[in-house]
Design a protein that fits this description.
The chain has 66 residues and is an all-alpha fold. 73% of the residues lie in helices and 0% in strands.
């Protein structure tokens, strides 16, 4: 059986949150979902960032600035 933990629950919510960010294209959203969800530390950081800063964080993450 797969272990279900808080991290799993967070990863399942990433795309839902990203969908609410108007400045992301569908492709950016999918790339960000994968990039954030595949790294536990990045997932934790994503959920601690204020909502109004998430889009800038995602853009910087995708561009390699962070």
């Amino acid at each position: 059986a797969l272990e279900y933990d808080e991290g799993t629950e967070k990863r399942m919510k990433i795309n839902e949150i990203l969908t609410k960010l108007p400045g992301l294209s569908m492709l950016e959203r999918h790339k960000a979902t994968r990039k954030i969800g595949c790294d536990r530390e990045t997932t934790d950081i994503f959920f601690t960032i204020p909502d109004d800063e998430k889009e800038a964080f995602v853009k910087a993450l995708l561009s390699g600035d962070i």
